Amino acid sequence: MKYYGYDDFKNDTLQLLVEVQSFQPEVIVGIARGGLTLAHAMSEALNIREVQTIRTELYDATYKRESLSIFGGCDLKDHKRVLVVDDIADSGETLQAVMQNLESEFSEITFRSATLFYKNSSVYKPHFWVNEANEWIDFFWESDFKSQER
Known about the structure:
Strand order of the largest sheet: 4-3-2-5-6-7
CATH topology: Rossmann fold
Radius of gyration: 15 Å
Structural class: alpha/beta
CATH class: Alpha Beta
Helix content: 25-40%
Number of strands: 8
Shape: globular
Number of helices: 4
Largest sheet: 6 strands, mixed
Strand content: 35-45%
CATH architecture: 3-Layer(aba) Sandwich
C-alpha cells in the first residue's frame, strides 16, 4: 500500500492541469467520492465554477462489489466540453461506465477524463493521467480524516 500525501497531490494536480488546459473544459464532473478533491482543486485552478457530481459505488473499502451502481445525473445542456475526473482508474469500470453513461445521454458534448493514477490493467484509459499505479493507493483524504474513536 502506498500513502499518497497532500504534497504529492498538489504537485500531480499541477502537472495534470498543464495537460488538461488544451482541452479548455467548461464544466468539471467529479466522480464521488474519490474524484471530488481533485474536481475541486482543478476547478479552482481553471476558474471553472460549474462543478457537478455523479456518485458511484463499486468498492467497499478494499472489497470490490459484483456490480457498479451509478446514482444521480448531470445537467450539461448548453455545454460543449466536459472534463470528468476521478482519483484513479483502477479496474477502470467506474470511469468507463460513467463516460458511457454521459456520452449516451449527451451525444453532442465532447467528454474527456482525467485521473491522478492509472493502472495499465484498467479496462478504461483516461485521456489525461499522471501516475501509473502498481499497488493500492492510500489517498490522504481517505486515511487522514477517518473517524477516530473519541
